[in-house]
TrEMBL record, chain A:
Molecular-function GO terms, alphabetical: transmembrane transporter activity
UniProt KW keywords: Cell membrane, Membrane, Transmembrane, Transmembrane helix
Keyword Transmembrane helix: yes
Chief site of localization: membrane
UniProt-recorded name of the protein: Nucleoside ABC transporter membrane protein
Subcellular localization, as worded in the UniProt entry: Cell membrane
GO cellular component labels: plasma membrane
Keyword Transmembrane helix: yes
UniProtKB/TrEMBL annotation, chain B:
One Gene Ontology cellular component: plasma membrane
Residue ranges of the TM segments: none
Domain of life: Bacteria
Species for this entry: Rhodovulum adriaticum
Lineage: Bacteria, Pseudomonadati, Pseudomonadota, Alphaproteobacteria, Rhodobacterales
Annotated signal sequence range: 1-22
Signal listed as a keyword: yes
Keyword terms of this UniProt record: Signal
Presence of the UniProt keyword Metal-binding in the record: no
Protein name: Nucleoside-binding protein
Domain ABC transporter substrate-binding protein PnrA-like: 26-310
Amino acid sequence: MDLSAINPVVLTASLMVAATPILLAALGELVVEKSGVLNLGVEGMMITGAICGFATAVETGSPTLGFLAAMAGGAALSMVFGVLTQFLMSNQVATGLALTLFGLGLSALLGQGYVGVKPPATDRLDLGPLADIPVLGRILFSHDLVVYVSLALVAGIWAVLRFTRAGLILRAVGENHDAAHALGYKVVRIRLMAIAFGGAMAGLGGAYLSLVRVPQWTEGMTAGAGWIALAIVVFASWRAGRVLLGAYLFGGVVVLQLNLQAAGVAVPVELLSASPYLVTILVLVVMSADRGRAALNAPACLGRVFHASS
Amino acid sequence: MNRRTLLATAAFAIGLAGAASAQDSTKVGFVFVGPIGDGGWTYEHNQGRLAVEEHFGDAVETVYQESVPEGADAERVLTQMALSGADLIFTTSFGYMDPTLNVAAKFPNVKFEHATGYKRADNVGTYSARFYEGRAVQGHIAGKLTESNIIGYIASYPIPEVIRGINAAYIHAKKVNPDVQFKVIWAYTWFDPAKEADAATALIEQGADVILQHTDSTAPQAAAEKAGNVYTFGQASDMGEYAPMPRVSSIIDNWAPYYIDRVQAVIDSTWESDDTWDGIGAGMVKIGEITDAVPADVKAEALALKEAIANGDYHPFTGPLNKQDGTVWLAEGETADDGTLLGMDFYVEGLTGEIPQ
């Protein structure tokens, strides 16, 4: 065993990359759930974003356009969910699950011609001398734009939810849609906007996977990342800062287990491979043991159907 | 011609046409573990399938199913293929071994060919390539190229074929570079680009400047390209889109001649269950072009090694070789027999870490 081979600085830098897709998707889902909607289709929207972004980047040669297309693709798919649940009053859990299945199938279809294709490279953001600062330079200033966008979004979403009128309205809709409706807020419209935002974020997360982290397209390449994102929202008890913590924790365990194997640590491989999921379950159990607080934090109208007549 | 003879003639013509088409067209099925566009293992099997189609033209019809999970799903797919009239089915991954035998027992008239397995039946033959011969050449180049003396190895499952590859590469890397060290990550998958990319990144971060892979996607190549000064080798297929750097050479599986040969045997009704295990000499394993990123003298040595293996002058497992625990495996000049190689479940001396059980 030679743990000295694991460089904590490099490890931190790569866990940030590994965690970015789930961080983006979880942030989107946080906003959706704050508006009182439970969208279990994150996985489907992520993988649809992954192929939309990949295909666009390959066709146009621009990763930036790819990321934008991924957001559009994810948002478009989420609108299927939006129309079904907000206008047709379908069950949110069932519709979300169906959206995941639909997204997986649709992405496989769209991706037929893109298997084995090499996407254009996404450049690291050149921050000049900042990247040369020891330790901090490698961890903070050597990433691509999307990593910084994801971090900015954490702060942005936290600030909007906490300090702005728009955030207050969104939370009001999520806490008590009847009261919000009585006050004259357009509950359905606000929720649709939240769902579209969640879809765009999931799509962006998917594209980060197919354009930066792998970078390649394969069927089913999200491999459950969307479900992890959903778990992280609960783990974070609907707070943006804790979403960041949860995502980086998960990314950290994933990267650490590979590094431990490479360093020759004599821990059973199966256990190491399962460890990210075990840690997630463990944390969820610990969180929910404190029933009162976790329950208090959940938006009161989460998953409930709203109709103006009721 | 009265109406009756007309009908009889028509019936006879239809019957003849039916018989002719049934006799003419041999249906060959292929079951793949990944997508045909993986750029690696499955891609090459599919090239073999296409070669069969081209060689036989209308006489042979091929069908295939990609991304079939190893296990119960494989059995379902195989049954479906056999029911739809396939005469010969190639199952192209180790994990299809038991499903192939189970389905073969139900369809005694259908012939099966299972790649890389060791269980046979009257209508199940096995075939594999001596990939370890290619690994020896890779190990030689890797040992010469590495500057950090750390070589990363992305392994798939702890089965003999994979362990053989690690041993062959290590022995020949060590021979040219006594300080060389192997770091092995078991990915427990044949094909999962995200995981393969993460594994490659972890190895590179721990100082590996050469990455060998026994998984099928090109994701490790992409990770190496992103990292810069890291060398890789194409696995199963040439992966030439990553040449000349990071991919400096490759092991190419060339299944086409074997597939054509076996399909011909089925057409001639001479097919018999057997075990084929060919290497560089027979052309089943090819070494992809060694690029200019490799110094000329190393390239010449590698080609000489390949030549010696091809014409049988040299066996990649030639003693003196000890097992990991230090016990003697092969004495001076002794070469490993196929039985030991097929069941290889131990590391050779010098490799660190344990093979997961």
